[in-house]
Amino acid sequence: MAVSDEILARYRKVAVATIYSAVRELGGYEPCFMRGVKAYTSQKTDNDRLAGRAKTLRFVPPRKDIKMDTQSGEQSPEYIAMGSCGPGDVAIFDAMGRNEASIGGDVKLIQLKNQGAEGLVTDGSIRDINAVKPYGFKLFAAGNTARVGEPDVWPYEANGVIQCGGVTVRPGDVIVGDDDGVVVVPERVAEEIIEWAEDHEKVEEQIKTLIEKDNVPPGKYYNPATFSKLSNLNN
Amino acid sequence: MSIPPSIIARYKKVASATVYSAVRRLGYEPCFMREVFSFTPGITLVGSAKTLRFVPPRQDIMEQTHIGENSPEYIAMGSCEPGDVLVIDGLGKKYAAVGGDVKLLQLKMQGAAGLVTDASIRDLNIVADYGLAVFAGGRTPMGGAGEIDPFEANVTIQCGGVAVRPGDLVMADDDGVVIVPECIIEEVIDWVEEHEEVEEWIKTLIEKENVAPGKYYPPTDETVRRYHENNEK
């Protein structure tokens, strides 16, 4: 069953750094943080934080026969992938880490706006960046460029298993992103992770208060023992 | 569907550099693998491609794919017929191995001609003794654990920045690895053979007349016509 909008709303309230710790420490999923992928839309409020269900698109190096064999026009894999996105869904584009390769600009990406998608994440580049930002969906990429993608990458397959920024992504995973970057939460641990992360954030706030009040090095309280002790008190 | 042995034999007589020019000339670019080198120098590897795709490791996926002898890597190697080449998309991870002497024993048993990967190879000295030609991003003592994990056999992959489909022809020698898409295998070798003959003829002209190569190189249609005129009497 797909991760609910209620769960996504809870994810938007928690820092991506905390989600990373949860996925890594609790879930044992590493790598889960995307290398080289940066926020292009800023987070002023919790709701600006990216949290959505993954839809995926895999690019391959361009090849004439593959271009002829893949569907073109509206049925091209890129439009199938974007067309599969609704509210609460994030398009994740695997550009093979070619951070100079364009995966689309203001014309193509208008489809994500039309679909009301939550956001776009890619380890490639975006062109027409200033025209794309106002579309309103959240944007994370490895770069921006004036070039087109065709010499470097070709959209090949929608909604299969992909890599992006060195992390494996399956359709349905929860993708979270803020100014610290993007983390992939495997679908099967999505509920467990947010429970742990919410609890962990509360404890971290308490620890910060204690450190300031006692005027001590963070090491006094910032350790697993304190976490479990304070966490038990909270429950 | 498999490539006729007569075609393979023709490719074995030519250079990857000329094959590159032919594939490029037909509009297939990129076709040369970046950062993939021969680890069995002096050997020309030509064969039909089987493929294997790795992804970054993930516990939930590994639970579904690590199923003993039916793991994707063994499906891929098991699909190799005598003379085939296994091309492995290792995500360009230069310190992670796609396999070593134990796993790659299967390629030897299948009679494969070799393997090509943009990741690394371990236990190379033993693997080379298997009679396999090896082209890789590097050598490593590490396994793949933590960096890459086998996911899917015989789909379209990338390797060294080139798209590879099962059934493509792999042409590799000390200059590197070139992929010839299945639909142009015959057209490419026809052009390559003629072009190599013309080049040889041009080299004799350059030396004989003691001129700069630019006088005859690269050959124009006119040069090729003159070659035929002079050599087919």
Explain what the structure shows.
- Chain A is of the alpha/beta class.
- Chain A folds into two domains: 5-187, Ribonuclease E inhibitor RraA/RraA-like (Glucose Oxidase, domain 1, 3-Layer(bba) Sandwich); 193-234, no CATH class.
- Chain A has helices at residues 5-11, 16-26, 64-69, 77-83, 110-115, 129-132, 190-214, 224-234, and strands at residues 38-39, 50-60, 89-94, 119-122, 125-126, 138-141, 143-144, 154-158, 162-164, 167-169, 174-178, 181-185.
- In chain A, helix 2 packs across helix 7 (190-214).
- The longest helix of chain A is centred in the C-terminal third of the chain and has 25 residues, at 190-214.
- Chain A is elongated, with a radius of gyration of 19 Å.
- The mean pLDDT of chain A is 94.
- Chain B has 233 residues and is an alpha/beta fold.
- Chain B has two domains: 5-182, Glucose Oxidase, domain 1 (3-Layer(bba) Sandwich), CATH 3.50.30; 188-231, no CATH class.
- Chain B has eight helices and twelve strands.
- Chain B has helices at 5-12, 16-25, 59-65, 72-78, 105-110, 124-129, 185-209, 221-231; strands at residues 37-38, 45-55, 85-89, 114-117, 120-121, 133-136, 138-139, 149-153, 157-159, 162-164, 169-173, 176-180.
- In chain B, strands 1, 2, 3, 4, 6, 8, 11 and 12 form an eight-stranded mixed beta sheet that branches. Chain B has a two-stranded parallel sheet with strand order 5-7.
- In chain B, helix 2 packs across helix 7.
- Chain B starts with a helix and ends with a helix.
- Classes of the chains: A alpha/beta (235), B alpha/beta (233).
- The A-B interface holds A 27-31, 60-66, 96-97, 154, 156-157, 161-163, 166-168, 170, 186, 188-189 and B 26-30, 55-61, 91-92, 146, 151-152, 156-158, 161-163, 165, 181-183.
